[in-house]
Write a structure and sequence with these properties.
The protein starts with 7 loop residues before the first helix and ends with a helix. It has six helices and three strands. It folds into two domains: 1-28; 31-175, Intergrase catalytic core (hpI Integrase, Chain A), CATH 1.10.443.10. It is mainly alpha-helical. It is globular and about 40 Å long. Strand 2 and strand 3 (91-96) form a beta hairpin.
């Protein structure tokens, strides 16, 4: 990288832009318990396990592109999560028993709907017609999870614009971290 020559200006501007973009989330706050209750009432079954897992584990949004059911191991009172399994960035984190139970309920629903759930099954999948078998579930990755959660937060009435510098109070905690 040429920091002194002609490319230096664009490199420095890109770095500054990235840093300034991060500052817009600096005043965010975590959602309250009442706000969490409202959000997880959203009628899509996937919202509760996604939200509980994200809040309790602190995983980045991009982790949903890699998570499979076999990456979750139940422990006594919690669960261990293998994030980015097999990748250079892999690590372990933990989720609460509430998050694990929500994930387990989601996987049980999928089994009852005719899916052959295994350790290789994607943790989150796209919606399907539950009147028919779902032999080839499609992964719900980064963009799908982000869109679903933005909708759930907006529809719940929790995500409202805040006067001043803050755009939204806690959007970054859920989507950008």
């Amino acid at each position: 990288m040429d920091l002194v020559g002609t490319n230096s200006c664009s490199c420095v501007l890109a770095i500054i832009e990235t840093l300034l973009w991060g500052l817009q989330w600096a005043d965010d706050r975590a959602p309250t318990l009442e706000e969490i209750r409202k959000i997880v009432e959203y009628p899509d079954r996937r919202v509760k396990p996604i939200f509980y897992t994200k809040v309790s584990s602190g995983i980045r949004l991009g982790a949903w592109d890699y998570l499979k059911w076999g990456h979750i191991t139940q422990l006594d009172g919690a669960a261990k999560m293998h994030v980015y399994a097999g990748e250079e960035e892999e690590y372990f984190t933990f989720i609460t028993s509430e998050a694990y139970n929500a994930l387990e309920e989601w996987m049980e629903f999928r089994k009852k709907s005719g899916e052959n759930v295994t350790n290789d099954s994607w943790l989150m999948i796209q919606l399907w017609d539950t009147k028919e078998l779902n032999p080839n579930p499609k992964k719900l990755g980064l963009e799908g999870v982000k869109s679903l959660m933005e909708t759930a937060i907006r529809v719940s009435g929790v995500r409202t614009k805040v006067p001043g510098k803050k755009r939204y109070e806690f959007l970054a905690i859920l989507l950008v971290s």
